[in-house]
Design goal:
The complex is a heterotrimer of chains A (366), B (302) and C (268). Chain A has 366 residues and is an alpha+beta fold. Chain A has 8 helices and 20 strands. Chain A folds into 2 domains: 234 residues, P-loop containing nucleotide triphosphate hydrolases (Rossmann fold); 111 residues, Nucleic acid-binding proteins (OB fold (Dihydrolipoamide Acetyltransferase, E2P), Beta Barrel). Helix content of chain A is 23%, strand content 34%. In chain A, β11 and β12 form a beta hairpin. Chain A is elongated and about 75 Å long. Chain C has one domain: MetI-like (MetI-like fold, Orthogonal Bundle). In chain C, α8 packs antiparallel against α11 and α10 packs antiparallel against α11. The chains are: A alpha+beta (366), B mainly alpha (302), C mainly alpha (268).
Chain lengths: 366, 302, 268
């Protein structure tokens, strides 16, 4: 049973320009199991699309099919109106930056970057000029041209790999978790640089990662993938504030989830916390109330918020500019975050009131 | 992530044609080796099996079937089975001696020599490139009357060297000498797979050096040690040069009997029967030895 | 290496024992050299009179020249064929995933776990049963049966470290299959191929048991040496033996240096 087409929240796409890449029911089976299961996706020209998902969700397989390194079992991959299922990777106008970078260890930086041009028979002088241009674009010092690539640092190698991917001037660039092996500071620097390069070159980027932080920072749109299917696609903001189900909500960060059941009076009660809760935009009789930590507040009185729960402080964590508290209400542990400036910290084990307003809560059915 | 053989496919070939490539690229690469082994290893073994059932002293392999050759071997009046026993004993002793001789060296290569381990390994590999009769003859020149040992001792005023050559002891000595690398390298491999931090953890938990060796190193290195012992045994049981050159044929080993049967005695069926028995022994031991090996892990993760 | 701060007693024992064994291993080779540089036809130690005349006679001998040519012919043929077959075999061993691979890995080991003299004798029987005339070519075939598995392992060990993503990247960047092979696969696997070729050559050059039974009328250097050890000893025997050993050492040295030079050139 094919899942419904994962629609954007932005329904105006119907009148927009044709997508540069369209996936139509793309499926990949290994034996009986489907690693990618009926994926429909439209990629817009020049966008930075990130596909996130837990390990094993099929995102790498999907990317490899787009690059041509795997063949889909079913479905079509259409690039600018042309079906490219059978086109081998060396003839697709796309380039993949591998997770391991796959830099040729027996070649210098310049030779690595110029490799695609050499394969196309471009003359040496022209190759070298273009390679140096790309090195400049990636902020690599010019004298690195003759340096053996294995002598460069992790971050430098990263840049060489990206420069190499641009050499052929591809229409779409694929990135397979390129930043996962780098330390925090380097990762942050490169994230921003990638976003700048995207803006400067105007190319379409398709990026996969398991880190939601990277996805949020860099992308125009994010697609959340699970068990071979795309569960939701939209801007980072949309995914964050309007997740379509519990999985997406929980994947995008730490959340509080309460089971909810509609009562006769329209309010919802929960097996996870005492009291009746007001839910905005609720359609279904059962589901879950999702409240992000930043919307759960410490209250000074019962009238401070629409929905109130009694709890006691269990533990607190310092997150730099923000403070996080874990509170226990019966069996349930809830998480709330507030900025340091919001007020003095309550003592451990003290009884408090926490709560949120219905407009800050998200209701999902599953 | 590991998709089967999708690496190099896809030269825009139509789907039907690709389905005809029944064999993956890995299987196709294995074909030349398989052909060589089939023609050069399997076929001769099949031949000797066929000949082992032929009429004694005849050449009618695959046309007759008789157990006379095997019966002849097992006949206690025939002394051929003595050679078998001698070979087994010699091989067993060789393994036992080499296990002790090679272990400290293997330990050194894995833990002590550090950067020099490569050079030391090379020194132990090099003899494999020198034919064993040259090396064994060097020992003859050493031990013979008037040779290096005898001459040096006399020159020092001592009585001459012992009558060592052309005895079973000399044969054993030669085998220990020749098969050292085959015990050493698997052992070294086994020892080097023991992670250094396990040893440190053992020390940290208060174990003595002997306890660490017994409880941690030895069990983890055991697969390598056993392979070394297996390899040495199966090679030593079929050895013949040592018995000829150093042993002076004071002991006739089984391979020598096979050779005599094939050449002087022109009794191919008997020689084949002996060879079959030897092959069965070697085959069974090898089968049990390597059946459960994870070769990727042993050879790959270094 | 577990860095002990001070050399322990066991370490010293290990080093001492290893040194002793190494001396013992090379002692017979040394004895061979000593036996070849005496003037008299019969070996006596201490050598009463030193002379290089037997070495000279060995070099001048036409018969020995023929032997060396035969051995070289065999070793060269073995090397060329073994490198090709074993390269493919090593790809199947370590590079590609395929259905029968685990079984294949074990089957390839079988000729290594088999006594060479028995294999030689079985091949002798097989050739005779087929009516094939024995010559240096049949010996080449015999050598290959043992040497190809060894060289396959040598190359496979190198190939385990090969990142398949490199070939995929080259492909993705626009290279044709031939270009991938030429620009990426072979250059990176070259050290393994070179080591494999070296092993093939030297193992064939120094092989005795397989040659003994399968060369027929042709004679390789080790075979001739053995025949003369049994009957007709002259100091030319240890002379040739020593020369063969020195040749093997020289080839090994030159080849290792060439490899190291190439590696150093790759990193400016």
């Amino acid at each position: 049973m094919k899942p419904a087409r994962a629609l954007d929240d932005d329904a105006a796409t119907a009148v927009g320009p044709a997508p540069i890449l369209r996936l139509d029911g793309v499926t990949k089976r290994f034996g009986a199991a489907a690693a990618v299961d009926g994926v429909d996706l439209d990629v817009r020209d020049g966008e930075f699309l990130t596909i996130v998902g837990p390990s094993g969700c099929g995102k790498t397989t999907l990317l490899r099919m787009l690059a041509g390194l795997e063949q889909p079992s079913e479905g079509g991959i259409v690039l600018r109106g042309r079906v490219i299922n059978d086109l081998p990777p060396n003839r697709r106008p796309t380039c993949l930056v591998f997770q391991s970078l796959a830099l040729f260890p027996h070649r210098t930086v310049g030779e690595n970057i110029a490799f695609p041009l050499k394969m196309r028979g471009v003359a040496r002088a022209a190759r070298e000029a273009r390679a140096r241009d790309l090195m400049r674009m990636m902020r690599l010092p010019d004298h690195y041209f003759a340096r053996n690539v294995m002598r460069c640092s992790g971050g430098e190698r990263q840049r060489v790999a990206i420069a190499r991917a641009f050499a052929n001037d591809p229409e779409i660039l694929f990135f397979d978790e390129p930043l996962s092996a780098l330390d925090y500071k380097l990762k942050k620097t490169l994230e921003k640089e990638l976003k700048d390069i995207h803006k400067e070159t105007g190319k379409t980027f398709i990026y996969i990662t398991h880190s939601l932080e990277e996805a949020m920072v860099m992308s125009d749109r994010v697609a959340v993938m699970r068990a071979g299917r795309i569960v939701q696609i939209g801007t980072p903001e949309e995914i964050y504030t309007r997740p379509v189900n519990r999985f997406v909500a929980e994947f995008m960060g730490e959340v509080n989830v309460l089971g909810a059941r509609r009562r006769a009076d329209g309010l919802y009660d929960s097996p996870d916390a005492p009291g009746a809760f007001r839910v905005a935009n609720a359609a279904a009789p059962t589901g879950f109330i999702v409240v992000r930590p930043e919307f759960l507040r410490l209250l000074s009185g019962r009238s401070d918020a629409e929905n109130v729960i009694e709890a006691e402080i269990y533990n607190s964590y310092s997150l730099g500019s923000r403070q996080q508290y874990r509170v226990r209400a019966g069996d349930q542990t809830l998480v709330l975050e507030q900025s340091r400036a919001a007020g003095p910290a309550p003592a451990l084990d003290s009884r408090v009131l926490v709560g949120w307003d219905s407009r800050d809560g998200i209701f999902v059915e599953e | 992530m590991a998709a089967p053989d999708a690496t190099m496919h896809g030269d825009a070939a139509p789907r039907a044609e690709r389905r005809l490539q029944v064999l993956s690229i890995g299987a196709r690469c294995a074909i030349p080796v398989y052909v060589l082994l089939a023609l050069g290893f399997l076929a001769p073994l099949v031949a000797i099996v066929g000949f082992s059932f032929a009429t004694p002293r005849g050449y009618d392999a695959f046309q007759t079937f008789t157990l006379a050759n095997y019966a002849g071997i097992l006949d206690p009046a025939n002394t051929v089975w003595v050679s078998f026993v001698r070979s087994l004993v010699l091989a067993g002793l060789t393994v036992a001696i080499l296990a002790v001789v090679a272990y400290p060296i293997a330990y050194g290569l894995a833990r002590v020599f550090g950067r020099r381990a490569g050079l030391v390994s090379l020194l132990f590999v090099f003899p494999l490139f020198v034919s064993e009769n040259i090396r064994l003859y060097g020992w003859v020149l050493f031990f013979i009357k008037g040779g290096v040992l005898d001459g040096t001792l006399r020159w020092l005023g001592l009585p001459g060297g012992p009558e060592f050559l052309f005895s079973p002891a000399a044969t054993l000595f030669g085998m220990v000498y020749v098969y050292l690398p085959f015990m050493l390298f698997p052992m070294t491999l086994g020892l080097s797979t023991v992670p250094a931090d396990l040893i440190e953890a053992g020390r940290d938990m208060g174990a003595s050096r002997l306890q660490i060796w017994r409880e941690i190193e030895l069990p983890l290195a055991m697969p390598g040690i056993l392979i070394g012992m297996l390899l040495t045994f199966v090679l030593a049981v079929g050895a013949v040069a040592e018995a000829k050159v150093l042993g002076g044929q004071s002991i006739i080993v089984i391979t020598h009997d096979i050779e005599i049967a094939f050449t002087y005695a022109q009794n191919w069926p008997l020689g084949s029967a002996l060879a079959v028995l030897l092959t069965i022994l070697v085959g069974v031991l090898t089968f049990f030895g390597i059946a459960r090996l994870d070769l990727d892990r042993i050879l790959g993760r270094r | 290496m577990s860095g002990a701060s001070a050399p322990r007693a066991t370490d010293r024992l290990v080093r001492g024992w290893t040194a002793f064994v190494i001396v013992a291993i090379y002692l017979p080779i040394l004895c061979g050299v000593l036996a070849s540089i005496g003037k008299s036809r019969y070996f006596r130690f201490p050598v009463p009179q030193y002379s290089l005349e037997w070495w000279q006679r060995t070099v001048d001998s036409i018969e020995i020249g023929q032997l060396v040519r035969t051995s070289l012919k065999m070793a060269s043929a073995v090397t060329v064929i073994a490198v090709v077959v074993a390269f493919l075999g090593a790809l199947a061993y370590a590079r590609y995933e395929w259905k029968g691979r685990k079984l294949y890995q074990k089957l390839v080991l079988l000729p290594i776990f088999f006594p060479q003299p028995v294999m030689g004798l079985a091949l002798l029987l097989w050739f005779n049963a087929l009516g094939v005339t024995l010559s240096w070519q049949t010996a080449v075939f015999a050598h290959l049966v043992w040497i190809v598995p060894v060289v396959t392992l040598v190359m496979a060990i190198q190939m385990y470290g090969f990142d398949p993503a490199l070939e995929e990247a080259a492909f993705d960047l626009g290279a044709s299959r031939l270009q991938v092979l030429r620009e990426v696969t072979l250059p990176i696997l070259w050290p393994g191929i070179w080591s494999g070729a070296l092993f093939a050559f030297l193992l064939s050059w120094g092989n005795f048991p397989l040659s003994l039974y399968t060369t027929g009328p042709d004679t390789s250097v080790p075979e001739w040496l053995y025949a003369k050890m049994v009957a007709g000893y002259t100091p030319m025997v240890p002379a040739l033996g020593s020369m063969a050993t020195i040749a093997a050492a020289a080839i090994l040295l030159v080849a290792s240096l060439a490899l190291r030079l190439r590696r150093r050139r790759a990193e400016p």
